[in-house]
Design brief:
Structural class: alpha/beta
Largest sheet: 6 strands, mixed
Strand content: 15-25%
Number of domains: 2
Order of helices and strands: EHEEEHEHEEHEH
Shape: globular
Distance between the termini: 13 Å
Radius of gyration: 16 Å
Helix content: 25-40%
CATH topology of the largest domain: Rossmann fold
């Protein structure tokens, strides 16, 4: 039974939700899955895992700095394992920005790390204006206005394509 580690960084919880779905799919395929936040990653012995999957969200155009630190610290271990990386961002709601080859945030991320994940994915996130602070709501609404996205301050919109997540999970189980 392959041992799989899923490490995530989430801002509002959507990346963790995606990780939970991936965990479910992998466990159905007889993987023993451990799911942890990147902030807990120091307490885990990476060498005991066969697969390491990393998921990270975007906020204001950037992945969490802890993801970069984790990858830089553990690059050799990551490269010695079956591995994957996925990014969660609202820009991926657009058809021409929803693949690893076309998503600007994933492309930038890959140019900033020396690690080369074996499998990549991009998933659209979620907007929950009512959960945000006044300033976050204002800034995100401005960004959405500029990018022709939803700006209703009462809107809660999940853009995640769950079928795409399922297919990624199935591909991960076959790696």
């Amino acid at each position: 039974m392959p041992k799989t580690l899923i490490i995530y960084s989430t801002t509002d919880g959507q990346t963790r939700k995606i990780c939970l779905r991936l965990q479910q799919i992998l466990e159905q395929q007889n993987n023993l899955v451990t799911l942890i936040s990147v902030t807990e990653s120091d307490s885990v012995n990476l060498s005991i895992f066969d697969k390491i999957i990393i998921g990270a969200s975007i906020r204001y155009g950037k992945h969490n700095k802890n993801i970069y630190e984790f990858i830089n610290t553990n690059r050799a271990m990551l490269e010695s394992k079956v591995n994957a990386f996925f990014s969660v961002n609202v820009v991926a709601r657009k058809p021409n920005k929803d693949t690893p080859e076309t998503n600007p945030y994933l492309k930038r991320f890959l140019s900033q790390v020396s690690w080369h994940p074996k499998k990549l994915a991009v998933f659209a996130g979620k907007i929950e204006y009512q959960k945000y602070t006044f300033w976050d709501r204002t800034i995100i609404r401005l960004i959405m206005w500029i990018t022709k996205g939803p700006t209703d301050p009462k809107a809660n919109i999940e853009f995640t394509d769950w079928e795409k997540v399922n297919k990624f999970g199935e591909a991960l189980s076959k790696m």
